[in-house]
Design goal:
The protein is α/β, with parallel strands linked by helices. It is built from 2 helices and 6 strands. Strands 1, 2, 3, 4, 5 and 6 form a 6-stranded mixed beta sheet that branches.
Length: 115
């Protein structure tokens, strides 16, 4: 990406994967991950959302072994404010709890609105 040098952000992890479509066209998929050691709060979410708005990755994550704060939980789950997760059309930041034992994010440990 020619504009990459203009980015002045310090995201914790940047990942890229190259895939090939059936027609042979190659596509670069980009992911960013912000890592916190405390419970993720609205300020942390704002930080990664700002990064994602600049970089426009295919995926943006914010993870913490302590999960997320009660106020962020209530905002998204109880009040359905999923708009605060959106950084581009049809793209949302994924807020997740990191499991230190399995070294992964489990399906049930992602902050999503109540059904």
């Amino acid at each position: 990406m020619p504009w990459w040098a203009t980015l002045d952000i310090a995201v914790d992890v940047t990942g890229a994967a190259l895939s090939t479509e059936r027609n042979g066209r190659k596509i670069l998929h980009l992911a960013i991950v912000e890592v916190k050691t405390h419970a993720i709060n609205l300020r942390d979410l704002s930080q990664v959302t700002g990064y994602a708005k600049v970089v426009l990755p295919d995926f943006a994550f914010i993870i913490s072994p302590k999960g997320w704060s009660e106020s962020l939980h209530r905002l998204i789950r109880d009040f359905g404010r999923v708009d605060v997760l959106e950084y581009a059309p049809k793209r949302k930041v994924i807020v997740a709890k990191w499991n230190t034992i399995s070294q992964s994010v489990r399906a049930g440990d992602v902050l999503t609105p109540a059904s």
